[in-house]
Specification:
The protein is about 40% helix and about 15% strand. By secondary structure, it is an alpha/beta fold. It has 2 domains: about 120 residues, Aspartate Aminotransferase, domain 1; about 230 residues, Aspartate Aminotransferase, domain 2. The strands form 3 sheets. The protein has a 7-stranded mixed sheet, sandwiched between helices. Helix 4 packs across helix 10. The longest helix is centred in the C-terminal third of the chain and has 16 residues.
């Protein structure tokens, strides 16, 4: 006998949000046996030594709750890395918290400072977790587009500022655009925010994937920005372990106090043996300093291959994502074309429109992930060149 369950009406807090495009396209890739260059994860293994260090930490008994801010050893290792890479100090006790990945760090930062009625400026195309988090806490996303060249649009951001603006979210290297902010952009942002109470959230999870001799222009390097900013990083992206979901956030003490108030009731702490392993592993700078070269080689391999096709690759300055215009192939919308590309040609990509609130109607661009084995990229290129 089945129980009668009363129907309780639920007013959705995110009525316009459905299944993410990443889930949709990855499922389609599985159904058709396609090469998945859609979702952003490597298909090559992590360093075996890092896995061994996790096992060692588990066998050593590091299997219980960690401090909410993260184990001291890992925070000290991050402190040393920040000094080495950016020549700045970040106090491990008061300015640093280990998080369950970059997305949790972003969500928690937004939860800590956004109140009902606040406006948050988001630069489109944008990672899809930003706007829903703002809406969940009563804020209103205000969307500004990157320029036609996918570069930062300082004048557009300035025009979007209002007395209600609480937070500006930036992302460098940019997902999905593959462009980077430079020091001149950071100075423009600092000028824009100077004299206001607007806070900054800087998503820098691809910090070690900057190419062609450029340097990552972190907010940490700009004191007038850092004093008002949450800066988010990811171990998963750097060490090819996206499924571990471990990252960290750096913020000045007053902001970090508010962040930790939410963090303790959100996840409280993060996987203990993994933290111990990361602390030991990153004591050797070569573990992260060679990442840019690895991915720049993959980018070049993929772009050279794409140039032999009818796709037109856009400039990729950082991240492990490559945009490509397919206007010479089809007039279909990017979602229609991405689905057909998977079904008929066996390669999966993400339609760029998924990263916009209001996508440009005439834009015909897909996002490909090149964080793959060379053979995977070569097989995908062969199929794309046949179109």
């Amino acid at each position: 006998m089945s129980l009668s369950v009363p129907r309780v009406p639920i007013a959705s807090k995110l009525p316009h949000v459905g299944t993410t495009i990443f889930t949709v396209m990855s499922q389609l890739a599985r159904e058709h046996g396609a090469i998945n260059l859609g979702q952003g994860f490597p298909d090559f293994p992590m360093d075996e030594r890092l896995g061994d260090l996790v096992h060692e930490a588990m066998r050593a008994g590091h299997n219980q709750y960690a401090p909410a801010a993260g184990i001291p050893e890992l925070r000290e290792a991050i402190h040393a890395k920040i000094q080495r890479v950016h020549a700045v100090n970040a106090d491990p006790e008061s300015e640093m918290t280990i998080t369950a990945g970059g997305t949790q760090a972003i969500f928690t930062a937004i939860a800590a400072v956004v109140r009902p009625g606040d406006e948050v400026i988001i630069v489109d195309p944008a990672y899809d977790c930003y706007a829903p988090a703002v809406e969940l806490f009563g804020g209103r996303p205000v969307h500004v587009r990157l320029g036609l060249d996918m570069q930062f649009n300082a004048s557009g951001v300035a025009a979007a500022v209002s007395p209600r603006t609480r937070l500006l979210i930036i992302n460098t290297p940019h997902n999905p655009a593959g462009t980077i902010l430079r020091d001149a952009d950071m100075r423009a942002i600092a000028s824009l925010l100077r004299g206001t109470e607007i806070l900054l959230l800087s998503d820098e999870v691809y910090e070690h994937m900057v190419y062609d001799g450029e340097q990552h222009a972190s907010v940490l390097r700009h004191p007038d920005l850092r004093e008002r900013a949450f800066v988010v990083f990811s171990f998963g992206k750097v060490f090819h372990v996206t499924g571990w979901k471990v990252g960290y956030v750096i913020a000045p003490p007053m902001l970090m106090q508010e962040f930790r108030k939410v963090h303790q009731f959100n996840v409280f702490d993060v996987n203990t043996p993994v933290q111990h392993a990361l602390a030991t592993y990153m004591a050797e700078p070569e573990t992260y300093e060679g990442v840019a070269g690895l991915f720049e080689e993959k980018r070049d391999r993929f772009v050279i291959g794409l140039r032999a096709s009818r796709f037109e690759p856009l400039a990729c300055e950082g991240s492990y994502f490559q945009l490509a215009d397919y206007s010479r192939i089809s007039d279909e919308t990017d979602l229609e074309f991405a689905k057909r590309l998977t079904r008929e040609h066996g390669v999966t990509a993400i339609p760029l429109s998924a990263f916009y609130k209001d996508p440009p109607p005439d834009q015909r661009i897909l996002r490909f992930c090149f964080a793959k084995e060379g053979e995977t990229l070569d097989n995908a290129i062969e199929r794309l060149c046949e179109i």
